[in-house]
From TrEMBL:
Keyword Transport included in the entry's annotation: no
Annotated signal sequence range: 1-18
Region (Disordered) location: 365-386
Zinc-finger found in the keyword field: no
Keywords: Signal
Residue ranges of domain Outer membrane protein beta-barrel in the record: 455-794
Full protein name: Outer membrane beta-barrel protein
Length: 928
């Protein structure tokens, strides 16, 4: 390992310190007028391979930096002019090559359409867009788009399928510029075939308002657009797959698409019991959270220090733990109804069932009386989710547009859970214990809609928008809770309860914005926002005694709250060719009016609070030449306490964990600063991304905990002075062309200082983590393989106590290989080695995961594929999560999918329709 790192260091040193030259000059026409946006190329003299590139500015000037000494040709091209070629001569004793004034001559005649047969450039820069030619990055047969993205320089795909470009998370994936099953990027990356893609376009999408008004507001959204091959746009394409395996494992999947000009129609369907998902997992996460709150009368308390010191999962390896059964399917459509009206929408359902067995061991760091807690839990739950959305975008005329969106979802959820919790004392005796059985079921309905009207005045730069957003949420749940409690120092007890809870939340937001030009591309934006949030909840808890149910007045309550927000803001905007600046501030008034009815008290309790906050903001973006960008963002955020946090009422649903609200809470106030720098060199395919983020919160809301002699925990939200987190991230990627390889390095450092409160004593806590990774990939036509190493170290330090520092050191090593042989055969293997290590608690665990497959293509144009796969060959059916925060270290051991073998058949629907077949050549049309 040391030798490898030394070799890598030498390579980087050679690359970094080799002498570089700059090539500069001016491009003019035959009348000496400047030619802006002319393309400037530095090419290898022997084969015209692209080395570096640039473009001229408004004055026709250019400068191409970072050129190593060699034998190069210089080329300038501009539409309507003959291209200019010249050999580059490098001077002695200087680092600048001055090409002087270059005059382009108009083309003497118009040429007809020309067809050029050859290979496309693997990457092209078009202003703010990086465009990859998909055909230059080979994937295995029947691979999804996700596998194609892993091959692209600067693009990262993690174990969960989340896509990042140069370190920034991709938030949207479109197909031919259209939404694909809403905003979930994984719907496209996991379900569309890679061989249907012609180009992958990566860009920072401007906000809808900036696109309409033409005034850059500095807001960006990292977006990938998948441009289909021409032959895919007028035919049905996709694939169907079915497989069966040992241990009753099965998998079936279908993706069928019909795209033509102005219309898109897609169908997705899947069913499996191998923990495989073809969509984002938000619905299941929401389901889990909802079930925790339902808990059959049990309130699940976060035993950490609240939002300011959340637990940090370490080294999960991207495994989906537990045993999951999934059925899902849906339709997506896009239709250009008229020249002015575009409609798109989708419907999708998924039915998830998961069984989890979990063992938890927790070391309580600051509680000397209760140093250890153990828990064994089994859980069986399901979630049936329906969701649909529709968008109508109507371009009324050149000055006005109307956009209407609507989305709704309906969930049916159910869960059964049993657990055994033991709290141990210093001499390892049991202080208290609980045996709990609970079940919950219910339904959740969500509706969201919005209307956006935009008007562009005839005066350039004057712009107005009016928007209205409405949402509604209804949640009805029923559950039972059965617990046997034992104590070392007091009498044992039992709890038998049934609960019913209904909640209803409605939101209305109205906003208006007006932009006025100040001249010289300067603008003043004024805006006003009004928001009303109405919440109602009714909770009834009954004690079960035999066949009778008696209302438990102390646990039953009803409340309603009304949050009213008024925000008035003013922003100054400055737009230039290379940069834009936004400076502004808003004044926000928040009114909270709440009423709580307690069944064990006469009358009601009122909560009436007013909050006033000044919210400044600043954004700055600077675009350098050659696709390099610097961005700065500063914003302030106010987090008001929820009605539950403000209720001064004890919730004793679980006598071992009591929750009490705090009516004296005030909002927390966060300052957030983020600085990003990224660059991508299309000539060398090198990429770099760096980020610095600082978040400082005053009056932070944390969970204060007090623990008595029987280890009964009482949690109350309180304000503390501060919470500060500083994080940095950087990655660098570059190819080694002679070895057909690519190296990637990444590093991340995070430092968090917060305050935890235990038994009314504040403790300063510092949590520092550092991680690094190195990746190597090799790619030839028939052989691809990759190596990866990730190391994470985390230290938790307590400033005001004698508690020892806690240190984690966790590692992941991985390798993957794919080999194609005898034209039709393909072998694939992946190996992951997950290592969990904590010297403080003498915990050490390693999990090796080995998967392999062999496949053969057959039928006409290789449309069919038969695949035999072996999953988890070493049969490690255990998953591990490690979490730490200011008050405890926790390790979870969960059941996971064991070894199985599967035989699958895959059929590509349209390969026999593809007139191009498997021809690797490309036809480039040049219009003159």
């Amino acid at each position: 390992m040391k030798k490898l790192l030394l070799l890598v260091f030498l390579i980087i040193s050679h690359v970094s310190f080799a002498q570089k030259y700059s090539v500069k000059g001016r491009v003019l026409d035959n009348t000496d007028a400047a030619l802006p946006s002319a393309t400037v190329l530095v090419l290898q003299a022997k084969d015209s391979t692209l080395v570096n590139f640039g473009a001229t500015d408004l004055q026709g000037a250019f400068e191409v930096k970072g050129v190593s000494k060699g034998d190069y040709l210089f080329k300038v091209s501009f539409l309507g002019f003959d291209p200019f070629f010249q050999k580059i001569l490098f001077p002695n004793g200087a680092t600048v090559v001055d090409m002087g004034a270059i005059k382009l001559q108009p083309q003497s005649k118009q040429l007809k359409e020309v067809q050029v047969q050859g290979e496309k450039s693997p990457v092209v820069i078009k202003k703010d867009t990086i465009e990859f030619n998909a055909g230059s990055f080979k994937t295995q047969p029947n691979a999804a788009v996700e596998e194609l993205l892993k091959k692209l320089p600067g693009v990262e795909v993690d174990a969960e399928g989340n896509v990042s470009m140069q370190g920034e998370k991709v938030q949207r994936v479109t197909v031919d510029g259209k939404e694909f099953f809403g905003r979930d990027p994984k719907m496209a990356t996991k379900n569309l075939p890679a061989d249907a893609i012609d180009k992958v376009q990566v860009f920072d999408k401007k906000s809808d308002q900036a696109t309409f008004s033409g005034i850059d507001d500095g807001q960006r959204e990292k977006t990938i657009n998948l441009q289909l091959k021409e032959e895919k746009r007028n035919n049905a394409f996709g694939s169907v797959m079915a497989g069966g395996g040992t241990d009753e494992r099965y998998q079936a999947k279908a993706s069928i698409n019909r795209f033509k000009k102005g219309q898109q129609l897609s169908f997705l369907g899947m069913a499996n019991n191998i923990n495989s998902q073809g969509f984002g997992f938000d619905e299941y996460a929401n389901f889990n959270g909802g079930m925790s709150r339902m808990g059959g009368g049990m309130i699940v308390i976060n035993n950490g220090s609240g939002g300011t010191a959340n637990g940090i999962p370490i080294n999960t390896g991207g495994r989906m733990n537990g045993l999951m059964n999934t059925q899902a399917g849906g339709l997506n459509f896009n239709n250009q109804v008229t020249k002015k009206l575009e409609a798109n929408g989708s419907y999708f359902f998924n039915n998830l069932n998961q069984t989890i067995s979990k063992d938890v061991e927790r070391d309580n760091l600051l509680n000397a009386g209760n140093p250890r807690t153990t828990e064994r839990t089994t859980q069986d739950g399901g979630n049936l989710n329906h969701r649909g959305n529709v968008t109508l975008d109507y371009k009324i005329d050149s000055l006005n547009s109307l956009k209407v969106t609507g989305a709704l979802s309906y969930n049916e959820i159910a869960q059964n859970q049993s657990s055994r919790i033991n709290n141990f004392g210093t001499n390892d005796q049991v202080l208290n214990a609980s045996d709990t059985r609970s079940n919950s079921e219910g339904n959740i309905f969500n509706l969201n809609s919005s209307i956006l009207f935009r008007h562009r005045f005839t005066k350039p730069g004057r712009f107005m928008s009016v928007n209205a957003d409405m949402s509604a949420n209804q949640n009805d749940t029923d559950g039972t809770y059965d617990s046997d409690l034992t104590f070392a120092n007091r009498e044992d007890s039992q709890i038998r309860q049934r609960n019913e809870q209904a909640s209803d939340t409605r939101n209305l937001t109205l906003g208006v914005s007006h932009t006025e030009p100040l001249g010289n591309r300067q603008y003043l934006e004024s805006n006003y926002t009004y928001r009303a949030n109405l919440s109602e909840s009714n909770r009834e808890v009954y004690d079960i005694e035999g066949n009778s149910n008696t209302l438990n007045a102390s646990l039953s309550n009803m409340y309603e709250s009304l949050y009213l927000y008024h925000r008035l803001g003013l922003n100054y905007k400055l737009n230039r060719q290379k940069y834009n600046l936004t400076l502004g501030t808003s004044l926000q008034q928040s009114d909270l009016n709440g009423e709580v009815w307690l069944r064990n008290m006469d009358g009601k309790q009122n909560i009436d609070r007013d909050f006033y906050n000044l919210l400044p903001t600043a954004r700055f973006n600077y675009d350098f030449a050659n696709n390099r960008r610097l961005s700065f963002n500063y914003e302030t955020i106010v987090q008001e306490p929820s009605i539950r946090q403000l209720q001064p009422v004890a919730d004793i649903s679980n006598p071992l964990n009591i929750y009490v609200g705090n009516e004296n809470l005030i909002p927390s106030y966060m300052h957030q600063v983020r600085l990003n720098y990224n660059s991508f060199d299309a000539g060398t395919l090198r990429s770099f991304f760096g980020m610095l983020s600082v978040m400082h919160t005053t009056n932070a809301i944390v969970s204060s905990q007090s623990i008595d002699e029987n280890s009964i925990r009482t949690t109350t939200p309180v304000n503390v002075d501060y919470n500060t987190m500083v994080s940095t991230f950087a990655n660098y990627s570059y190819p080694i062309k002679k070895l057909n390889s690519r190296l990637h390095f990444g590093a991340n450092v995070r430092d968090q200082n917060t305050i935890s409160v235990l038994n009314d004593v504040e403790n300063d806590v510092n949590v520092r983590s550092a991680s690094g990774n190195i990746r190597y990939s090799y790619q030839k036509e028939n052989l691809n393989f990759g190596l990866r190493a990730d190391i994470t170290a985390q230290r938790t330090k307590y400033e005001d106590t004698n508690q020892n520092d806690q240190l984690f050191l966790n590692k992941t090593y991985a390798a993957d290989a794919n080999y194609r042989f005898l034209k039709h055969y393909n072998i694939n293997a992946t190996f992951d080695y997950l290592v969990y290590d904590n010297n403080a608690t003498n915990f050490n665990q390693a999990i090796p995961l080995l998967n392999a497959s062999i496949s053969r293509q057959f039928l006409k144009n290789n449309a069919g594929e038969l695949k035999l796969s072996a999953t988890n060959l070493l049969d490690r059916n255990t998953g591990i999560n490690q979490t730490t925060n200011a008050l405890y270290i926790e390790r979870e051991t969960l059941n996971s999918l064991g070894q199985y073998y599967m035989l699958s058949f895959i059929y590509n629907i349209n390969k026999h329709l593809n007139p191009m077949g498997n021809n690797s050549g490309e036809v480039i049309r040049i219009m003159r």
